[in-house]
Amino acid sequence: MSEIMQPQSAIHNTQALIAMIRSHYQSDDFIPLHAPCLGEPEKQTLNACIDSTFVSSVGEFVTELEQRFIDYTGARHAVAVVNGTMGLFLALKVAGVESNDLVLTQSLTFVATANAIKMLQADPLFLDVDSSSYGLSADSLEAFLNEQACQKDGNCVHKSTGKVIRACVPMHTLGFAAEMDRIVEICQRHRIKVIEDAAESLGSFYQGQHTGTFGEMGVFSFNGNKIMTTGGGGMLVTNDDQLARHAKHLSTTAKIPHAWLFEHDEIAYNLRMPNLNAALGVAQFDRLPNFLEEKKVLADSYRDFLIQQSNLTMMQGLATAQPNYWLNGLILSDQPSRDVFLQKTNEAGIQTRPLWTPMHQLDMYKDCIRTVLPNTEWLAERVVNLPSGVKCHG
Ligand SMILES: Cc1ncc(COP(=O)(O)O)c(C=O)c1O
């Protein structure tokens, strides 16, 4: 058993933690889990966007946000989309996922990961998460493929159903990077495409490389609860010229560029991020280094405080990774102590949340193929997310 599987002592001093959180945020009011920080810079770019009259999917802010992403993540291409869910859908589509295919992913994720797979009439197949990275377990992936898959006509095929395992979607849980070198190597060996669900991991690195840039494609979310926001929005990144071109083409109704003609060469979608949202994103991007710095300070404070108070564990992630500390996760001893903690903190006006109900426990996904999921269930029963937003001064 790994370190994280050892039982932890229950929290004795919730009141002291509440006091610490209130003192950090210098507030006696309701403290949200993660509020966006918006102010004058965002108002300025939004006003500039309105003045330009380019408020829909064409405009300089969309192009600028894409370029900022390329510069920051090191990916060759970035395609701005309406949100992370549809970014995942688009990535799976251009990766060639078709109806009846299987797509490997983790059960411990936000439901959008599985929904995006289902939107293509493919089925998610749930693997376990790793007890140290909290992302897709390379061990679970390797064992599953070695035992239950074979190669047929250049595809990876699930032996018992005969279905093609077309893609694998590891998710960087709460901004903690998954073990991407191993995951990519295993998938390459089995001819499976890797699409990273990097929705939560802008600013997170693995072995010095930005998350989302290890697989064929990576997808980020700028929902209002993420480390930076565009209201709603997402970004698909890739190093592959052809995939980037196709993703952008499909996101813009597959229109063939022309000064006046409306010619389209595929049935496609309207998934491009509007310029208004991108304007917000450009202003937010300037703040990202400060957001990351402040979140690291808060994560360190939580860890130091909890070790002193009650010897409790905060989620840490892999030593080879640099998390963005999007959401801080406290690991309690068992589900009953988690529930008491959730109740006490929320009653005191401190918003805390459990992790997601694992996908294999949701009605619509309970019949999907899955492996044993001990780490998924262990973490889902014990983790509580603590307030993690930055202190915003406009
Ligand atoms: C892991 C994960 N995947 C996908 C998404 C979907 O992103 P969006 O809300 O932008 O559609 C989110 C966040 O909302 C997420 O946390």
Low-confidence stretches: 1-10
Q: Strand content of the residues, in percent?
A: 15-25%
Q: Supply the number of helical segments.
A: 11
CATH architecture of the largest domain: 3-Layer(aba) Sandwich
Structural class determined from secondary elements: alpha/beta
What's the total number of strands? Answer: 16
Summarize this, please?
The chain is an alpha/beta fold and 394 residues long. The chain has helices spanning 14-25, 40-52, 60-73, 84-94, 111-118, 138-148, 180-189, 241-251, 275-310, 335-347, 374-382; strands at residues 77-81, 102-106, 123-127, 149-152, 155-158, 165-169, 193-197, 205-206, 209-210, 217-221, 234-238, 313-314, 321-322, 328-331, 353-354, 383-386. Strands 1-11-10-7-6-2-3 form a seven-stranded mixed beta sheet, sandwiched between helices.
